[in-house]
Amino acid sequence: MHRRGVGAGAIAKKKLAEAKYKERGTVLAEDQLAQMSKQLDMFKTNLEEFASKHKQEIRKNPEFRVQFQDMCATIGVDPLASGKGFWSEMLGVGDFYYELGVQIIEVCLALKHRNGGLITLEELHQQVKRRGKFAQDVSQDDLIRAIKKLKALGTGFGIIPVGGTYLIQSVPAELNMDHTVVLQLAEKNGYVTVSDIKASLKWETERSRQVLEHLLKEGLAWLDLQAPGEAHYWLPALFTDLYSQEITAEEAREALP
Amino acid sequence: MAIPLSQIVFIEEQAAGIGKSAKIVVHLHPAPPNKEPGPFQSSKNSYIKLSFKEHGQIEFYRRLSEEMTQRRWENMPVSQALPTNRGPQPGRIRAVGIVGIERKLEEKRKETDKNISEEDLSKLMVKAKEMVELSKSIANKIKDKQGDITEDETIRFKSYLLSMGIANPVTRETCGSGTQYHMQLAKQLAGILQAPLEERGGIMSLTEVYCLVNRARGMELLSPEDLVNACKMLEALQLPLRLRVFDSGVMVIELQSHKEEEMVASALETVSEKGSLTSEEFAKLVGMSVLLAKERLLLAEKMGHLCRDDSVEGLRFYPNLFMTQS
């Protein structure tokens, strides 16, 4: 009996049909890729034109940089993803932020023994500016963007919002919500006590103590048993006096691996 | 420092060019014998050039041309001496006027510039958005026709995404690994890092590598993602280094020949000798970064060789006597 769809002939026919379909599929993808390649070349030209007019401005004007970055984010483009990207190559934005990344790492390493790996954005800003490696204005927004990129390196860079500014974490210390909230509480005076926590956050004594102990263990807090009343837990990251202190030569040496 | 306007024969503009500022060339009569002493007694040139680094040349030229037309000095008594560095005079108030106009023009120019910049930026972004849309459409086609797109085409697509900074819509990784660029980079890194790794006991954190490589480059720096994506390919390309991720999330580069587990054995010896050690103490003894010292001690703990004493005084490691004394 002549059954359809069965037998060597039918199988061969099916294979032929599949191959043709595959070919069509490949042609479709090839078409679109060719189109993308062409559009990419056109875009590169547009970007070159833009760069010739505005490259300097991006380098010199922090506000324009923010506008640029925000627009990129809105349309789904990351100009800092790769040094090989057009944005980096033609606008030079890459080198600026990646170099900033290096500076940030070095500053954080040098100061780690002072503050346990936690530093305010203000202090970081001052220290980076002080190094003078950038001819142009580095803004706090620039620092935040550079830090966000550094997270990819896996060594625990984090950004913790506290009281209107940010604490930058540069060591892989585990900080959960409880720790973060206590840090925010400490931001006002540079220190916090168990009573402060119980009053503001309505926590039990044990929970408060555990959080503070963790901060001590991680080297982020110092214990002051001689304070009036009860023990004060100070956060060196929040000592505004330390801002004015330069990084010493020894600290800098420690920082370079 | 001043030159009387009567000395001017004529003036002409010179437009700005690449590396050159805009200039006004002022051609002069020969200096009179009773010329005031100045920076030069004489010059072989019969003109001076006024250089305008940023702006102002248009307004200056206009004003000067006006004065050249009016020639008001011809109506003044000849004997009037040239005022030099006197206090506020009628002439001075004029200067303030010019400065005021200059400032207004400057502000207007900045506003216009700002608007042009923003407009140009918006136009550029519209075009960039088209690229994003196109890449999404291609990615969808790829998803639908699983396996019908050649590897070659996949590599091409990924490199286009890399150029634009568009996240790979299929894997959600920005630029993903597996592009030619990252493969080349991986090979370069293997070359660059061999010696530094050997100097540092065979292991470095990715942060150290990032700084080291970028400091050496000086320009055309690597992004953190470039580095990570290249390192992810090290093992696949059978290069003598590899990327390792510890439980804590810390990422390191190791020489293939480096056996962290063996280092743990020697770490145990060191800790036993001293009775107990913190990460900082161990780091100092062995000459490692605190970060990597801690990872080694944690690994030793994980393998059961060490146990911890976690107090407010810090994290201290002891040989695990429970294991050895059974």
- CATH architecture classification name of the largest domain in chain A: Orthogonal Bundle
Distance between the termini of chain A: 81 Å
SSE order of chain B: EEEHHHHEHHEEHEHHEEH
Ranges of chain B with pLDDT <50 over ≥5 residues?
Answer: 83-94
Largest sheet of chain A: 3 strands, antiparallel
Name of the top-level CATH class of the domain at 259-325 in chain B: Mainly Alpha
Average predicted local confidence, pLDDT of chain A: 85
What would you say the CATH architecture of the domain at 259-325 in chain B is?
Answer: Orthogonal Bundle
Adjacency order of strands in the biggest sheet of chain A: 1-3-2
Please give the share of residues in helix of chain B. Answer: 40-55%
CATH topology of the domain at 259-325 in chain B: Arc Repressor Mutant, subunit A
**CATH superfamily name of the domain at 259-325 in chain B?**
Winged helix-like DNA-binding domain superfamily/Winged helix DNA-binding domain
The total count of strands of chain A amounts to: 6
The CATH superfamily of the largest domain in chain A is identified as: Winged helix-like DNA-binding domain superfamily/Winged helix DNA-binding domain
Counting DSSP H or I runs of 4 or more residues, the number of helices of chain A is 10
